[in-house]
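Worked Example 4.2. Consider the chain below.
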Amino acid sequence: MDAGHDVSPLDTATKQFVAARPRLFGIAYRMLGSAVEAEDVCQDTWVRWQNADRTNVVEPVAFLTTVATRLAINTAQSARVRREAYVGPWLPEPIDTGADPQVGAERTEAVEMAVLLLLEKLNPVERAAYVLREAFDYPYRELADILETSEANTRQLVSRARKHLATERRERVSRDEHQRLLKVFLTAAQTGDLKSLEQVLAADVVSYSDGGGVRGASRIPVVGLPHVSRYLVAFAPRFWPEADIRWVEANGRPAVLVRSGGNAVALLTVDVSAEGIDRIMWVMNPAKLAPYMASLDN
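Applying the procedure from the previous section yields the following structure tokens:
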């Protein structure tokens, strides 16, 4: 008997979905900045795929990508409303990219914390166009089909997104320089060394603390070198003495996991240019730290 005849249509559909799932998650995560919401998009895509008339689907990956992208756009639209009521600064949910640096993409693009934060300022369709083009290298013709618009409009969407990021973000430094400055910053922050902090921070540095109203994080961004450096010096005696430090990777960049009493209390990441550290991002919300910690443990 030919074993191939025993393969059911659902088995085939399952294999096709599993093969495409890393890409679907990568798209949804970049569009939403949330691993939890990206997982929901993947699950909803699977349900749609199960219920679809698959006999008419010529390219399963294209079908699944289209469904996931449109679901992510809808989720992003509702997420904007929820985030307007978020307590304090909102930061993307970090992911462990140590195991999969590309997170399902052809390129390691649009996955850094700072980029995801800037992409929040785009509308969901612009963000989808940018993610699919820059991270997954989709041709404009396919992008137009996925987004149900013209090819010319798709080019404009990507162009606007690129200009936005170029305006908001300076040219990055190498990974080695990034890690060096983060190490210097960490030591200075732990010891309350004001002079060293002033040497590594950019003049217009911004510090974001995302506690989600749960932890005692600053509920407004701290802006500018004088304010940020003094803020860091002020809370150093309360924050660091009981802390355990672990170097990790988050969103394709070196990061620092801070624990106290065996519990994760913060994930520290920075964005660095030739000017110094531009953005300091403290993810302190337990709901965002828990999935990251589970990934590290696995």
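The mean pLDDT is 93. DSSP finds eleven helices and six strands in the chain. Compare this with Example 4.1 before moving on.
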